[in-house]
Specification:
Helices cover 45% and strands 21% of the residues. With 140 residues, it is of the alpha+beta class. Among the domains are: 47-76; 80-139. Strand 1 (22-24) and strand 2 (30-32) form a beta hairpin. The longest helix has 31 residues, at 46-76.
């Protein structure tokens, strides 16, 4: 003869206790209480959280790698730097520029000087075509 394990009766079911997420049916089986379990927030398991945090680290490392690449690319190509001075409305304005060659550095510095002081397309074009008052370039 087989002895059946005793379960609490349906009258003493776990649904009467606050926070229970299961119930016992009349046959004595434990069933999930769908009404209660759907009302609870769905918190991620520890395993899922560790996988997600690993993915976050990959994204963080990728962003840091990209920032490092941009900084390296900007600094490594500056073989020559120039300071260009031009006169605007009676005052001398000087700006710096950098590039692989002296011509690139000089153009960058002159465009920087014109960009901040010339208003409109006509003045910008005239400024870029003007000869600077002073140009000083350094290598290295």
């Amino acid at each position: 003869m087989r002895v059946r394990p005793s379960y609490p009766s349906a009258s003493a079911s776990a649904t009467s206790r606050p926070g229970a997420d299961f119930r016992i049916d009349p046959a004595g089986r434990i069933l999930p209480d769908r009404a209660r379990s759907s009302a609870r927030p769905n918190f991620p398991s520890i395993h899922r959280a560790s996988v997600r945090s690993g993915g976050k680290w990959i994204v963080v490392l990728a962003v840091l790698g990209f920032i490092g690449y941009v900084i390296y690319g900007t600094v490594s190509r500056t073989g020559v730097s120039c300071e260009v001075c031009m006169e605007f409305d009676g005052r001398m304005v000087c700006r710096r520029g950098a590039g692989e060659t002296e011509a690139e550095a000089r153009t960058a510095a002159q465009e920087s000087t014109c960009g901040g002081n010339a208003m409109g397309m006509t003045e910008s074009t005239e400024c870029r075509n003007r000869t600077p008052e002073r140009v000083q370039c350094t290598t290295g």
